[in-house]
Amino acid sequence: MTIPTPLVDCRRIFLRSLTRKVSIGIHDFERAAPQTIIFDIDLYVPLAATSPRRDQLEEVVDYDFVRSEVSQLVARGHIALQETLCDELLDALLSHPQVVAARVSTRKPDVYEDCEAVGVEVFRYKAPSISPGSAA
């Protein structure tokens, strides 16, 4: 995978295999009980803005922010599609002012007996903002 140029000077923060029970799916049997969803999440934050000078939590993006966004999203109620789940979580993560890019992957491990999981992954980075008065 080629890393887009705006991400070269970034730190990658990640959570692997964050597991939640989620009301998700389009079939009646999926609406009957929550399913296990496993999240893999990467956040990209600029090194210049998140390199701790005083070794303090407020100098970086806290992992709890990610966990909180996942929990809030799944607590809102039933979601039909994994695509919707990924897109909405990605939007929430990208709303953090220090996050310049994110990758969200979700997978259902209990759907088919003949495969480990079925899932969806989405990646997006924010377009660089141009400050007023700068040349475009």
Question: What are the SSEs and their pairings?
Answer:
Layout: E1 10-22, H1 28-32, E2 35-46, H2 47-50, H3 63-75, H4 82-94, E3 101-108, E4 118-125
Antiparallel strand pairs: 1-2, 2-3, 3-4
Helix pairs in contact: 3-4
Q: Roughly how many Å is the radius of gyration?
A: 17 Å
Sheet with most strands: strand arrangement: 1-2-3-4
How many domains is the backbone divided into? 1
The description of the largest β-sheet is:
4 strands, antiparallel
Summarize this entry quickly.
This protein is 26% helix and 30% strand. It has four helices and four strands. The model has no long low-confidence stretch (mean pLDDT 88).
Question: Which descriptors apply to this entry?
Answer:
30% strand; elongated; 136 residues; GTP Cyclohydrolase I, domain 2; 4-stranded antiparallel β-sheet; alpha+beta
Task: Characterise this structure.
By secondary structure, the chain is of the alpha+beta class. It has a single domain, classed as GTP Cyclohydrolase I, domain 2. It has helices at 28-32, 47-50, 63-75, 82-94, and strands spanning 10-22, 35-46, 101-108, 118-125. The protein has a four-stranded antiparallel β-sheet with strand order 1-2-3-4. The mean pLDDT is 88.
